[in-house]
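Task 17 of the worksheet. Students: predict the tertiary structure of the chain below and write it out as structure tokens. Keep your answer in the requested format; marks are given for formatting as well as content.
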Amino acid sequence: WVICAETHYFLFYTSDILRKFNPDIKGASKGIGKRQTGFNMAVSGAKMAEIPQQIHNLIITMKNDSTVNFQNDWKLVTLFIGGNDLCQYCNDRVTLSPQNYSHHMRMSLDILYKEVPRAIVNVLEILEIEGLRRIKSDSLGCNLIQKQVCPCFLLPGEDSPELAEIKRINRDVQIETEKLVYGGNYDGREDFAVVLQPFFKNTIVPLDTDGRPDSTYFSKDCFHFSERGHADMATALWNNMLEPVGQKQTYNNFTNARNNLKCPTEEHPYIFTKGNSFPTTASDCSGSVPAWLAAVLAIVGLLIGWVITWTVFFCRDKTSKRKMMTSSLGMKETTF
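Model answer:
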């Protein structure tokens, strides 16, 4: 759903939306098999530790493509990884720790930052996997495969210490990712940006008209998304891309409706990044100061004025008392 270009009459993918604005974009995968993958380097079942190699493969593929101007063409890279790390965490807590996840994510982003010019990198926040426990079906694939694919989330009992631990690890991975992306490590170039797209952060399980989990959004294994689910994720990603940093939707409501697509505006005809989400403060040579600074200076001035006034009156009162004492002594001496 990120880079696929197989459009159906009721489905669409992120690359399909992008082609509405630029029909000449390159790299979308168009089918099954290595010759059809385009710039899609994803590998089924991969974990975070494998992403740096996928990044290297992507760079080599782009450089070897004669239709790509590697130095001047803008690139949109999307990283969506971590589900397999969480699902297998209980089998290898050290290798699949949130810290190692963050380490390999940093390695991947560092490679892109150092080697790829003119790029926007979407980092999709890992979803809350606990909701998968509610996805049920009588199909053979759902009954047999689901718990094998994600045992660490699906096997623990309700309210068990094991379930509480994996839920905490899920949130820790989200926190580590946020710290990395927002840490400022990739703010030093004007032609490069890393953006966290958080629509998976608070995952809502889609429901049918009877209020039960809607299995049509998931494949037969009750773990991976179906085509309908992929199309909905494409919409959510696109909408996140058109929302400013700090104002991005952190959940997906699973409506599967094309009319929910956001459109670029005349005021903001671009993908939002950290650099263009916040208004810049232009330098003002007129000598004016911000209102908050003026208020602070006024309060400080009042305090200084009060201190000076108190000091003057205190000294004057002290001097007056000394004069009175001196005068009194003089009168006593004269009388004596």
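Marker's comment: Confidence is low (pLDDT under 50) at residues 3-11, 281-289, 328-336. DSSP finds ten helices and three strands in the chain.
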